[in-house]
Amino acid sequence: MIIQLEKNISTNQKAQIIDKVTALKYKTTAVKTQKGEYLIGIGKKEFDIRNVGQMDGISDIHIVSDDYQLVSKKWKVKPTVIDLGDGVMIEEGGMALMAGPCSIESEEQIDKVIAHLVKNNVKIMRGGVYKPRSSPYSFRGLGNDGLKMWYKAANAAGIKIITEVMQVSQIAEMYEYVDIYQVGARNTQNFNLLDELGKVDKPVLIKRGISGTIEELLSSAEYVFSAGNENLMLCERGIRTYEIASRNTMDINAIAILKEKTHLPVIADPSHGVGIRNFVEPVALACIMAGADGVIYETHEKPEEAYSDGQQTLNFDESEKLINKMRRVFELRESL
Ligand code: PEP
Ligand code: MN
After folding, report:
1. In angstroms, rounded to a whole number, what is the distance separating the alpha carbons of residues 238 and 165?
2. Which of 19, 130, 135, 259 has its CA 20 to 30 A from that of 166?
3. Does the CB atom of residue 207 touch ligand 1 within 6 A?
4. Which of 161, 162, 164, 250 for a ligand 1 pocket mutation test, highest count of atoms within 8 Å of Cβ?
C-alpha cells in the first residue's frame, strides 16, 4: 500500500495515519524522496482503503500487492521522464541512444567516439572508467582521471555521460562528471550502493543481475527510489542460461514485462545481451519492437584493438547502420 502524503502535512497528522495503518496490522515505512513523501504499508489484511484515504494529510492511497511498490505502475500510471538537460530526455515514446566503448581508453579514443556520435546525432555516450572484470589481470579502467578527461571533451561537444559506479566511495568523486550513474550487473544487489545512490540528485540506470529475476531488478530499483531518488531507469542486459552459443541470453520478454510492471524507462543492452558483434543489430531491433525506451550499446573505432569486450563491439560503420535501422524500426513501432 502506498499512501501519498500532502506537502504540508503536520507531524500530528502523520502520526495519526501511522497509528491507524499500524492498527490494521500493516508495517509502515516512511519514505521521503526528492519529489514527494510517502508511507509504505506492508501487510495482508483486507480493509476498505476509504477508511484511511479520507484522513487529513493524505493526497492519495493505492493498493499495490507486489513486494516492490513505488516503482510499480499500479499506482503511478504516468511514465517517468528522465530529463538530462539541454533537451536530452529518456522517456516512453522516445528512443534514447547511448553508445560508446566498453572502456574509456585514451583521449584520442574519446575524441573519435564523440565525433562519431555527433555525426549521428547521438546525445549520450557510454563508457567504463571503473570496470568490473571477471579476471583481476584484465584492464580495470582509467578511474576518475579518465572520467575527468572524458567529461571535458563530452561537455564541449554537448554529449551526456553514462558510466558505471562500482562502490559507494566513488559516487561523490564522480558526481561532477556524470549525467547518469550506471549500476552494473554484478552490483544489482549491492544494497549499500543502491541506498547511497538514492541520496544523489542525478539519474541512475540499474542493470539486471547476471542471474537476477525481473522481480529482483524491480526490488533493486525500489531501494534507490525509497532512499530518495525517483530518477531511475532499468536495463535488460541478458541473463545467464544453459545456452553457450552466445555470451548471455537476451531476455526480450523482460522488456515487454517490465514495460507493463513499472513506470520507469526500460533500456536494452544488446551488446552484453548477446555478446557477439554480428548479432547485436538483430537483437537491438527486436528489443525496440518489444517496447524498449532506449538502447545502450558498444562501439569503438577499432573493436579488434579495444581493451575490453571487443568481440561484441561495433565499428563506426556498423554502428551508423545500426543507428539508422533503430530509428526506422522505432518509427515503425510507433506507427503500429
Ligand atoms: C558494461 O556496461 O560494460 C558492463 C560491464 O555491463 P554489465 O554490468 O551489464 O556486465
Ligand atoms: Mn562491456
Report:
1. 20
2. 259
3. yes
4. 164
